[in-house]
Every structure is written in C-alpha cells, then in structure tokens.
Amino acid sequence: MTDLDETDRRILELLAADGRRPYSDIADDVGLSAPAVSDRVAALEASGVIDRFTVDIDRSQLREGAHVLVDLSVPPGNVDEVRESVGAADAVEHVFVTASGDVTCSARLPIEDVRAWVGDVVGTDAITDFDVTLLESADWRPSVGGAEFALACDECGNTVTSEGETARIGGSRYHFCCSSCQARFEERYERLDADA
Asked: Which superkingdom heads the taxonomic lineage of this protein's source (predicted)?
C-alpha cells in the first residue's frame, strides 16, 4: 500500500467540495493531465480511500419547516437503535453520536411538531430526554485537509501502514496490517469457499 502524497490529498479536497468536478479542472489545479488525475482517482477508489460518490441534498430547498438541532439523551443500550431510526427519517440531514453516547441530528421540521416528531420517529421509551435548538443557518463542508487516512486491516482491524499488504481475494481487494493477518484471512476464506 502506498502513502497519499500532497497531490492525492488535494484531489480528495477538490472532490469533497464538488464530486462532479471535471478531471480537467482538477488537473489544472494540481498540475497534472486529466488522464493522470483519472488514474489517481481510480487508484484511490481501488485502495478503498474513496468509497463512493454521493449527492449532498440541501433538504431546506425541498421542504418547509425550521432548521433545528435535536439532541437526544439515550440510554447506552439504545444508541444504535435510536441512531438508525433518526437516520432513516425523511426530515433528517445529518446524524451524529457524541462521545457521551447521545444522538444529535440536524433536521428541517415544523417547529410546533418537534415533540410529536420525536415520539413518532424514536419513541419516548428509547430516550431519557431531548433538547431542540433552532438554527439560524447551517453549512456542511466535508474537509480532508489535515486528515490522516488509514485503512483498517480486514483481519484484525488494526491500522494498515505503508508496510501493510494488499491482496485481491475472490475478486475483492483486501488490506492487511501484516503478512500473518493476510495468511489467516486467506486460509479462512479458502475453508469457507470450499464448504460453499
């Protein structure tokens, strides 16, 4: 596995700002040709750094209501259930789980119906309390600047460094922190494949 250089990081920054930016525009910015940028993006996809290209919809343009931040106090056993319920709700733009285990979301809701919305989406038994903050404005700008990219070993979950291994097994690409993890993974894969 190779480390990302400054050109890779700049390409990621430009794509994070606009995933539909033409490779020719990126090439002008980073001093490469458009085919060279295309090759780098393909390599970033193949290595797992880029998972997919998505659309970030500004839901405020699609529905009425006030933009609010809803903080849900959640008992430890309910965090995943509440996060999934909130994340599936149509009005929700972003969902976060805090270090203390609370679930926070930004949503566009009719302000007079927030209590009813929380009851419908989450249920009052799944949370201990909630707070609502009315937002004047919101802006979502994902950034890769200063971020360290690290892949997780597909066998043990440890960070894959430049000394790690990458292998194509069964048509998929996998990353490993060391050759022994790769060997264990391949051995288990072959056993499961033989049993199938």
From this structure: Archaea
Task: Please provide the CATH number assigned to the domain covering 1-49.
Answer: 1.10.10.10
CATH architecture of the domain 59-134 equals 2-Layer Sandwich (3.30)
Domain boundaries, the chain: 1-49, 59-134, 150-196
Joined tokens for residue 92: 């929700």
167-178: b (≥16 Cβ within 10 Å) or e: eeeeeeebbbbb
> Is this structure's pTM higher than 0.85?
no
Does residue 1 carry a pLDDT above 50?
no
Residue 24, pLDDT score: 93
Closest by alpha carbon to 99, among 79, 128, 85?
A: 79
- Closest to 106 measured CA to CA, from 61, 60, 143, 73: 60
